[in-house]
Amino acid sequence: MTPPLLAPDVRRTSSRIVLVHTVTFKQARQLVPVLIPIVAGFGFGGGLTTVAILAVGITVVSLAAAALSWWRFSYADGPSAVVITRGLLARSVRTVPNDRIRGVEVEVPLLHRVFGLVRVRIDAAAGAAGENEEVVVDGVPRAEGDRLRVAVLTHRSQTPATGVDEAAPEPVEEELSRWDNRWLLYAPLVGSYLALPAAALGALSRVLDDIPGDPLEDEFDIELPAAWAVAAGAVGVTLLLLVAGSVIGAAIVNWGFRLVRRGGALVATRGLFTRRHTELEIDRVRGVSVSEGLGMRLVGAGRATALVTGLADAARRGQLLPLGPRAEAWSLADLLVADPGPLTPHPPAARRRRIVRALVGGLAVTAGGLVLGISTGHWELAVAGAVGTVLGVLLARSLYAALGHAAGPRSFSVRRGWLVREQVVLERRAVIGWQVKQSWFQRRDGLATVMACVGAGSGGYAAVDMAAAETPAFTAAASAPWAGALSPPRS
Q1: What is the pLDDT of residue 353?
Q2: In the list 187, 230, 310, 485, which could disulfide-bond 250, CB 3.0-4.6 Å?
Q3: pLDDT tens-digit readout, 356-367
Q4: Sheet of strand 74-77, all strands in order from the earlier edge strand to the far edge
Q5: Measured distance CA(248)–CA(244) in Å, rounded
Q6: 3-state secondary structure of 133
């Protein structure tokens, strides 16, 4: 039975989306596993005619699949829920209550922009087990996308009594952050921006390896000094390509980034080719995470991410500052969550644990290298073990320096990590439970790992190797008096 909401408010996406999905083969891609054996069964030969027939056939299939998908898709938004209806043979009706909607993102990919369309992603914590929690309305005009975004976030696109649009004053807009193109210089220090150009260079190197013969040997008679110069040049070109690729990638993703507070929502827009408009309700923000990679710490850069209850893909959609100065990231964090104060360092036993683990591994390798050197005369492993021991101790001290926790009147904070150091500031109301863990070695040293279980972000954030005696006081100060009864487990 069709829900009553669909009758007065049913809407359809623009028919222009059929062309977009035909060009991108969105629906047809799902038919590839079926079409391959069919084509193989007919035994098509080679030649230009076969290629043309296959191209026309795939295009026709893509057009038919896109048209059927569009014809059988409808949506409706009312004062209490959003309803999505889809499916050709097996009809599916999904109802998402407005109070379960966590955020809305309006995407404008390049091809959508050509046809004047947008894609609206509604993040809803109302999916069945194994079902995507996003509701996607793909292919509506920009004006309809804006109307739908406002409707589902304000929960009052129409009044139930009259069905007439409810007038509301335009919310005041306050700009919180704006992208500075100088921040692109941080991109080569961020691993995620280096991943794509590194993968491209790896693929190119594999293609060159498949070319018969050695181009350098075929074209040049290179002696040893010249070979070293060529190798140094290749390394320099590789580094230059990595840097350029990371900067270009960061520009494509973050170009024109702007974060504003509009009424009770945070609105972020960014993207060069695909423009994204993400809107999050401030009331659902439970905390902020500020992360700094190893390279970013060297130049004082950071990232800020809002921790929102029930938000899917929070690492991307919750970004308050994708990349920028550390001071800018913390200023945004302070606007949303109260500062709990300076971090309390963890006891010296936590540092000793890390140094001992580094020494045990490094000295074991060094001892094995000494035995090998005495018996065979090869001392490389012993040297590597000694160097690894020194570096391990330095790493252990850095890991300890990253640890810390704090509890204030309205929030608390924990910090950990070395390669990527992350400090999380959470509101007291975010805590839904605590978990205290203590290994045999931690019990011996009077330490414990205390994890705050929350309904936002990754779901849990830990204060690693804090003093076990401080556990009850910290948990009570960071959430509520009931948590003061917690104590480390006893053997």
Answers
A1: 94
A2: 187
A3: 998 998 899 899
A4: 74-77, 81-86, 92-97
A5: 6
A6: coil
What residues does 413 pair with on adjacent strands? 406, 425
Distance linking the first and last C-alpha atoms of the chain: 58
* Single-letter code of the amino acid located at 169: P
Q: How far apart are CA 288 and CA 266, in angstroms?
A: 13
Helices 32-42 and 48-71: crossing angle in degrees, nearest 10, is: 150
How far is residue 358's CA from residue 446's CA, in Å, rounded to a whole number? 20
Task: Tell me the C-alpha distance between 125 and 127, whole Å.
Answer: 6
- The sign of the torsion formed by the CA atoms of 93, 97, 101, 106 equals positive
200-218 pLDDT per residue, tens: 767 666 655 655 555 545 4
pLDDT at residue 66 greater than cutoff 90: no
Full DSSP string of 58-85: HHHHHHHHHHHHHHT-EEEE-SSEEEEE
What Cα–Cα distance (Å) separates residue 335 from each residue in 195, 260, 287?
A: 32, 12, 11
Q: Which residue in the block uniquely carries the two structure tokens 């919310």?
A: 171
Tokens of 206: 């594999």
Spatial neighbors of 280 by CB under 8 A, at least 6 apart, are: 102, 103, 265, 266, 268, 306, 308, 311, 317, 318
Counts for the chain of helices (H) and strands (E), in that order = 16, 19
SS (H, E, C) 278-340: EEEEHHHEEEEEEEEEHHHHHHCEEEEEEEEECCCCHHHHCEEEEEEEHHHHHHHHHHHCCCC
Question: 5: which residues sit within 8 A by CB, 6+ positions away?
Answer: 76, 78, 80, 81, 83, 95
The amino acid sitting at 417 is G
- pLDDT value of residue 62: 83
* Residue type, position 130, single letter: G
- In sequence order, what are the residues at sequence separation of 6 or more whose Cβ sits closer than 8 angstroms to the Cβ of residue 238? 201
- The tokens describing 33, both together, are 């596993």
pLDDT(240) > 80: yes
How far is 466 from 462, CA to CA, in rounded Å?
10
Q: Are 222 and 216 in contact (CB under 8 A)?
A: yes
